[in-house]
Amino acid sequence: MSLLLKRQIERLQIAIELSTDWLEIQYLRAELDQLNDLYEEPGAEAEAEAA
């Protein structure tokens, strides 16, 4: 996972933690899930199983 992607995910997680608006939290979680699904590395699971 690239450094830029990690920073994006971290910023979303922090925004979720700091938000008090339920609707905003739902929106940010959806965006975070999309990033995780879109950029999930398929080889990461295989490497973890091999270790």
Question: Which helices and strands occur, and which strands form pairs?
Answer:
Layout: H1 3-18, H2 22-39, H3 42-50
Structure at a glance:
With 51 residues, the protein is mostly helical. It has helices spanning 3-18, 22-39, 42-50.
Structural class: mainly alpha
**Count of individual helical segments:** 3
Strand content: under 5%
Q: Please compute the radius of gyration using only Cα atoms.
A: 13 Å
Distance between the termini: 19 Å
Helical content stands at: over 70%
Outline, from the CA principal axes? flat
Q: Give a count of the beta strands, DSSP E runs of length 2 or more.
A: 0
pLDDT < 50 runs, ≥5 residues:
none
Structure keywords:
84% helix, mainly alpha
General description of the model:
The protein has about 50 residues and is mostly helical. The chain has 3 helices and no strands. Helix 1 packs antiparallel against helix 2 (about 20-40). The chain is flat, with a radius of gyration of 13 Å.
